[in-house]
Amino acid sequence: MAEIDDIRRGRSGGQPRGFYVVCLALACERWAAYVLASSVVLMLCERYGHSQAESLRLAGLVNAASYLGTLPGGLLADKKLGHRRALSLSAALLTLGYALLILTSPWALWLSLAFLVLGGALFKPSTQAMITLVFPEGDPRFEAAQIRSYLAINAGVALGSISSGLAVRHGGWRVAFGIATGIMLVACVLLVASQHSLPRGDIPRNGKASPEAHGLSSRQRAMAIGTLMLAMLLYVLCYGQVEGSLVLWARDRTERRLGGFEVPAVWFVALPALLVLVLGGGQLAVLERLKRRVGTYRLVAAGLGAVSLAFVALSPAALAADDKRVSMLWLVACLILIVVGELLIAPLGLALVLRLAPSRFVGLIAGGWYVGVAVGYWLAGEVGAMWARSSPMAGVVFLAALPLSGAFLIWLTTARRSA
What is the pTM of this model? Predict the structure, then answer.
C-alpha cells in the first residue's frame, strides 16, 4: 500500500503520473493500430487479392478476436503476470506483429495477425486496469480521466490514419508498417522506463457500493449494466463501418478532389478521431452540468440517436445513381454525427459500468464490456459484407434502425426506473 500511495501522490497537472504514462502508451498503440486499421481492407484487396466481402469479413473477425481475447487476457494479467508486466509484454507482441507485416508473404500476414490479437488481448484490459488503479476508489475525476484517455486514443487514431494514407501513397505498405513498428518500439521504451509510476497489481477495495449504484437492487444494477453494454455493442457495429464499408464508399462513390488534390480514402478514417479531439474539450467543460440535467443513461441514449442520424445523412448519397460520385459533405456529415454519438456512449458508458460493478466483479464486468465490443466488431464485418452485396440504401436503412431501437430501449428502461 505504501507504493500505491506514493504513485497516487505523484501527480502532474492534478493527475497521477501513471495516468499520463498510460495515456501516452494508448496513443502510441492506437497510432500503430490505425496505420493498419485505416487501410486493412484496401491492403487485403490490393496486396493479397481478397474480394471486398472477404476483406470486410476478415477485418471484422480480427477486430473481434482482439477484443474477445481480453477476457482470458485480463484474467492472465490478474492472476499470473500483473498488469504492469502485462503492459510491457503486450507492447512487445504488438511490435513483433507490425514488424511481420513488412514482409509480403501470406504466412507473415497470418502470423502477424496472431501476434496482434494476442498483444491486443493483454494490452486493452491492462491499460483499463491501470487507469482504474492509479485513482482512489470513488475519485470524482474518474469520468473526466476516461474522457482524457479517450482523447489520447483518438490523437493516436488520427495520426495513424493520416500517416497511413501518406505512407501507402508515397512509400507503399512496407513503409507504412515500418512506421507502425517504430511507434510501438517507442511505447515499449516508455513503459519500461516508467515502471515506477505504475502500480504492480490490484489495490484492496473497501467493498462499498458506488454512489451510482445507491438505491438500485442487484437486478436493476444488472439491467443497467446490460443496457449500457448493448449500447456499446450497437455503437461499435455502426462505427466498424468507418474502417470498412465507408472507406470503400469514400473510394468508389465520393468525389474527393479539392482543387488539384485528391483526398485519400483512408483519411476519412482519421476524421472521426480529429473531431473527437476538437469536441472532447468542450464535452469536458460541460460534462458535470449535462450529467446533472440529463443523466448519464439518457446521454448514452442520445448518443445512439446521433449514430442513427449519421446513416440517415447518407440517404441522399445512397439514392444517387451507381456511376455518379456525390459530394464528400454527405460522408463528412455522417462522420460528425457518429463522433457525437461516440463521445456520449464510449467513455461515459464505460465509466458508469465500472462504477455500477460490484467491487469483487470489476474485472469480470470490464471483460464483459470488451466482449460486447468484440461482438460488435464481428457483426460490423458481417453487416459490411452483406452491404457490399446489397443496394446502398438497404445498408443505410438497416444501420439507421439498429441504434435507434437501442436508444428507445434505454429511454424505456430509464423511464420505468424513474416511475
Answer: 0.72
